[in-house]
Amino acid sequence: MQNYNELVLNFDKISAKPQYFLKIMNKIISGIPLQYALGHTYFDGNKFYCNKETLIPRPETEDLVFKTKKYIRNLNLESGTIVDCCAGTGCIGISLGKTYGNFKIYCIEKYKSTINVLQKNIDANEVNVEVIKGNSIYPLINNNIKCDIFISNPPYVGKMEEIESNVRANEPLRAIYVKDGTFFYEEFFKYHDKFLKDKWLMAFEIGYDQEEKLKSLINKYFKESVKYKFEKDMYQLTRYLFITNVDEIIN
């Protein structure tokens, strides 16, 4: 089940198992998000397990994947390497892996409890994705791994009061909050030449109010020849950033 509508539509089927139904409903009534109560959600048409050790995949992140696929098509690559950094459930890397079967996919995740869910999703989706345990881009640098596409939805909320109370109560804040909201992006930008190939694309989900700060960081760490573009989400908030050194990708 993907949402409350599906819960209602499948009411007869679920209520045929009254103990299971009551267990799920009691969790929801107590404030537990539907996705955690069920133990899974759907993203890009695929089922992903999730629990309190993982951020619940959002529609905004799903749109990041859709937009990134558009830019990848413009790269005209038959094969290559994709890195999903701060992977969580793996919804980004796994979804791209199912689309680009000829690519080598890496998911970087720091926390063992999250990796357990990530690996379960890799196995369930039968996709060739390799998990690297580590923090930020340092596993790439330390292992001399370079990629064509680098994508990330890192923690980027820098104001605790902007996080909804139900999210604070249930989801892992380590996947959402960071004192300096642009901390991870600055790391990615600063060391980009150590983990990107000659022609590359970077794709990010970002905070709605970070455009000017990120422009400043791009100017600080990249050559003038790079192209970048900010895009809006379904709510018309600035939510995505794409950077590349290939002219044809971004108009």
Summarize this entry quickly.
39% of the residues lie in helices and 21% in strands. The protein has 251 residues and is an alpha/beta fold.
Could you please describe the fold and organization of this structure?
The chain has 251 residues and is an alpha/beta fold. Helices cover 39% and strands 21% of the residues. The protein is built from eleven helices and nine strands. It has helices spanning 4-9, 11-15, 18-29, 34-38, 59-75, 91-99, 112-125, 138-142, 165-170, 183-190, 211-221; strands at 40-43, 46-49, 81-85, 104-109, 129-133, 147-152, 196-205, 227-232, 238-244. The chain has a seven-stranded mixed beta sheet, covered by helices on one side. Strands 1-2 form a two-stranded antiparallel sheet. Helix 5 (59-75) runs parallel beside helix 6 and helix 10 (183-190) packs parallel to helix 11 (211-221). The termini are far apart. The mean pLDDT is 91.
Keywords:
single chain; alpha/beta; 11 helices; 251 residues
- Straight-line N-to-C gap: 39 Å
Q: How large is the radius of gyration?
A: 19 Å
Largest sheet composition: 7 strands, mixed
Neighbour order of strands in the largest sheet? 5-4-3-6-7-9-8
List the secondary-structure elements in sequence, H or E. Answer: HHHHEEHEHEHEHEHHEHEE
Tally of strands: 9
What does the average pLDDT come to? 91
Low-confidence stretches: none
Shape estimate: globular
Helix content: 25-40%
**Structural class assignment:** alpha/beta
Count of helix runs: 11
Please indicate the percent range of residues in DSSP E strands (runs of 2 or more).
15-25%
